[in-house]
């Protein structure tokens, strides 16, 4: 009995000591964990706040760029016309864009004018100090010979964003005339807007606030973290544009994690530890290791295999292909990589649904595995397969690839219907010029693209010319990106003549690209490249802004002609298309009557609902819509009657065929003109180059003529001369 009591007592003491030690360790672990989590969260929150500052800087930089490239601002620096300040630099405009102050300087960094909307808030003494700081910033930028510079300044404990940009003309080809400085205070408006975006609670404090924080809590030179019983405070120092500490950012968050940690640490662990310390500890540890090993194997398999077909994926091919190449070289056999793309696979998903599309993919995978069952078949993307084929020689590899191509074209049953599939395939061989896996895959893909471009449902062998063509296309894409980034594009204008009134009905804005070596790149060479990327949206908005600016300039000369701007499918179907168009027109002060928007049938048919919503909003704003290239796509009376379209543009290929002998050409043009008249629309005939075409169109009720007969596309200067002498120009053509 006594020994049993001693044993129980010993066991009780052991449990008590174990519980006590575990409690101490648990508290330490939780405390350290909480500290680590709060430190990481503090970094993340401060990084997010930096991002908000960066976004605000970017907005201010965009405003500075837009204003510093106004031709009106460029002229203002030269003539000091105060009307420009009164009309274009109003305080209401400043408040709308959240701009605190701005100043113009000449090229010697001497101040021309200074504008500030905070005079009533901070007082005259503060404004005087602000102007001195502005002068110092511009002097620094001037001495460094930079085109633009941005950063922060501190004016008597008021933190501000500041951007300096050289003032140039809109073309960017004339020498700079001075500097424009814009500043935006990090005030209550900024904090409220940042809080609405991120949910962060923060303050912008003087530098002394950072210095007053206990140095023992400093983690880095410009970062301090304080942990009180209820909240976490994070402090970070921001340097000004001159490189000196300027002000302090303070973030505050409640210590929810620490409170939760304290609740956990206050629990009684001793009973759980007494029951599970010896048995469950080891068991859970072993189970954890087993589960971790199992999950690692599962994740490894999933990372290297396609979920739908079970085939290896691209990652698996990247790992295996070098070994396959090495083996083929060592064994002296031929190896070819076949790259297969199922033609029009999207239509299967659209017609039958994604589940049935997966059924088709699984059936295709089975067919391919019949030819190469050794794991060399992979699904690389939605409708792409790649197969590594080995044989005794290249001819046998090619024969096997042709057999696979034929197998891909066999019909299959889908929901009781016979489905006819085709595929475009490219084959590249391993040889002395192509001895690595990445290049082999690239060449096979180029050959597949060649098969696609030739109409699909065929097998193409890689040729060196394909790589040269792809390289040239990449170079042009890079050059086009540089041209868009550095203002290398320009806009030409082609007049449109209303032959029923013998007057100019408007102009069409056409983008042109002249490279740095003076060569002109034809639009058909670079527009398709732009349309495949987001560059086309930027180009559309660039042309729109230039057209708005030019229309206003001509209106000020007494010439009011609308300028039509073409919009790509990507632009029209973007989420904020109408907002962008209306914002640019508002920024340039362009009345809706001076801008027409041209869209294509393709943009309508791509997403009818989205296109209708966008152009309806523009129509409600007073902008006329023209349907370009009418008759070349899938024209529908349904959308013609529903859409708010004012003009139908007859494509030039119909005009070219008027006297070509095609029996359908003339009746087709008559039908389009009659259709437009019945729908209350006007017609615009493109590509009119001779008087016979003009006479035919005039005799059949055409309204507006556009083409080389009246004028080729002109730069803004020459087009302005044409418009000023338009009556004589038109009369000369009509009387000839």
The helicity comes to 40-55%
- Mean of residue pLDDT? 81
Task: Give the low-confidence spans.
Answer: none
Structural class: alpha+beta
Q: How is the largest sheet built, in terms of strand order? A: 18-19-21-22-23-24-25-26
State the end-to-end distance: 133 Å
Relative strand content: 15-25%
Q: Report the strand count.
A: 26
Textual characterization of the structure:
By secondary structure, the protein is of the alpha+beta class. Helices cover 53% and strands 22% of the residues. The strands form five sheets. An eight-stranded mixed beta barrel has the order 18-19-21-22-23-24-25-26, surrounded by five helices. Strands 2-1-5-4-3 form a five-stranded antiparallel beta sheet, sandwiched between helices. α1 (2-68) crosses α10 (270-276), α14 (354-371) packs antiparallel against α15 (394-408) and α19 (535-556) packs parallel to α21. The longest helix is centred in the first third of the chain and has 67 residues, at 2-68. The protein is flat and about 125 Å long.
Name the descriptors.
alpha+beta; 736 residues; eight-stranded mixed barrel; 22% strand; flat
Topology, please?
Layout: H1 2-68, H2 71-79, H3 82-88, H4 91-97, E1 101-106, E2 111-116, H5 119-122, H6 124-144, E3 148-155, E4 158-167, E5 178-185, H7 188-198, E6 202-206, H8 207-211, E7 218-220, E8 223-227, E9 231-239, E10 245-254, H9 256-265, H10 270-276, H11 280-304, H12 314-331, E11 334-342, H13 345-352, H14 354-371, E12 377-381, E13 384-391, H15 394-408, E14 412-414, E15 417-419, E16 423-429, H16 437-453, E17 458-461, H17 464-485, E18 489-498, E19 503-514, E20 520-521, H18 523-531, H19 535-556, E21 563-566, H20 569-572, H21 577-588, E22 595-600, H22 601-606, H23 608-620, E23 624-630, H24 637-642, E24 647-650, H25 652-656, H26 665-678, E25 682-685, H27 691-699, E26 704-705, H28 716-724, H29 726-735
Helix pairs in contact: 1-9, 1-10, 13-14, 14-15, 18-19, 19-21, 21-23
């Amino acid at each position: 009995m006594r020994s049993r009591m001693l044993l129980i007592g010993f066991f009780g003491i052991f449990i008590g000591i174990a519980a006590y030690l575990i409690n101490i360790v648990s508290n330490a672990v939780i405390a350290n964990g909480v500290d680590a989590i709060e430190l990481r969260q503090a970094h993340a929150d401060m990084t997010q706040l930096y991002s908000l500052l960066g976004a605000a800087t970017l907005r201010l930089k965009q405003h500075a760029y837009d204003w510093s490239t106004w031709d009106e601002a460029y002229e203002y620096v030269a003539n000091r016309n105060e009307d420009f300040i009164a009309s274009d630099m109003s305080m209401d405009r400043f408040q709308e864009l959240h701009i605190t102050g701005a100043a113009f300087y000449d090229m010697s960094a001497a101040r021309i004018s200074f504008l500030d909307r905070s005079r009533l808030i901070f007082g005259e003494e503060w404004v005087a100090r602000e102007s001195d700081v502005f002068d110092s910033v511009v002097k620094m930028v001037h001495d460094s010979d930079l085109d633009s510079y941005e950063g922060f300044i501190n004016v008597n404990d008021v933190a501000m964003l500041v951007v300096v940009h050289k003032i140039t003309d809109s073309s960017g080809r004339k020498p700079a005339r001075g500097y424009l400085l814009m500043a935006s205070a990090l005030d209550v408006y900024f904090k409220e807007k940042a809080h609405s975006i991120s949910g962060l609670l923060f303050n912008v404090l003087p530098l002394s606030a950072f210095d007053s924080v206990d140095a023992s809590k400093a983690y880095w030179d410009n970062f301090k973290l304080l942990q009180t019983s209820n909240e976490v405070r994070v402090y970070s120092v921001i340097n000004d544009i001159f490189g000196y500490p300027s002000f302090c950012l303070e973030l505050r968050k409640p210590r929810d994690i620490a409170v939760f940690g304290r609740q956990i640490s206050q629990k009684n662990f001793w009973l759980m530890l007494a029951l599970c310390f010896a048995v469950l500890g080891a068991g859970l540890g072993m189970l954890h290791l087993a589960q971790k090993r199992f999950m690692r194997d599962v994740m490894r398999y999933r990372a290297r295999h396609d979920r739908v077909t079970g085939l290896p994926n691209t990652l698996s091919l990247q790992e295996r292909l070098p070994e396959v190449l090495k083996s083929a070289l060592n064994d002296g056999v031929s190896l070819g990589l076949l790259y297969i793309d199922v033609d029009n696979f999207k239509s299967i998903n659209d017609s039958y649904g994604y589940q049935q599309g997966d059924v088709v993919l699984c059936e295709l995978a089975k067919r391919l595995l019949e030819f190469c069952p050794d794991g060399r078949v992979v699904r690389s993307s939605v409708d792409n397969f790649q197969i590594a084929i080995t044989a005794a020689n290249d001819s046998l590899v090619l024969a096997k690839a042709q057999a696979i191509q034929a197998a891909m074209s066999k019909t299959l049953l889908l929901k009781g219907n016979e489905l006819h599939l085709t595929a475009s395939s490219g084959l590249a061989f391993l040889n002395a010029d192509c001895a690595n896996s990445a290049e082999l895959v690239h060449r096979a893909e180029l050959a597949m693209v060649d098969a696609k471009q030739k109409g699909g449902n065929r097998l193409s062998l890689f040729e060196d010319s394909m790589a040269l063509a792809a390289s040239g296309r990449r170079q042009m894409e890079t050059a086009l990106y540089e041209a868009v980034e550095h203002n290398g594009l320009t806009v030409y204008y082609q007049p449109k003549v209303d032959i029923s009134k013998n007057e100019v009905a408007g102009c069409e804005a056409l983008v042109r690209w002249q490279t740095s070596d003076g060569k002109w790149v034809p639009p058909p060479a670079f527009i398709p490249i732009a349309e495949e990327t987001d560059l086309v949206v930027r180009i559309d908005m660039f042309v729109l802004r230039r057209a708005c600016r030019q229309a206003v300039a001509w209106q000020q000369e007494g010439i009011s002609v609308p300028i039509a701007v073409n919009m790509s499918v990507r632009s029209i179907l973007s989420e904020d298309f109408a907002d962008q168009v209306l914002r640019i027109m508002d920024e340039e002060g362009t009345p809706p009557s001076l801008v027409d928007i041209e869209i294509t049938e393709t943009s309508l048919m791509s997403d009818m609902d989205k296109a209708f919503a966008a152009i309806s909003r523009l129509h409600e704003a007073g902008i006329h819509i023209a349907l370009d290239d009418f008759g070349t796509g899938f024209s529908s009376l349904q959308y013609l009657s529903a859409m708010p379209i004012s003009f139908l543009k007859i494509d030039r290929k119909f005009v070219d065929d008027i006297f070509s002998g095609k029996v359908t050409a003339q009746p087709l043009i008559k039908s389009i003109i009659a259709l437009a008249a019945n729908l209350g629309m006007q017609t615009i005939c493109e590509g009119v180059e001779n008087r016979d075409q003009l006479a035919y169109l005039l005799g059949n009720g055409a309204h507006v003529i556009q083409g080389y007969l009246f004028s080729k596309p002109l730069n803004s200067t020459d087009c302005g001369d044409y418009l000023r002498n338009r009556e004589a120009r038109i009369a000369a053509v009509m009387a000839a």
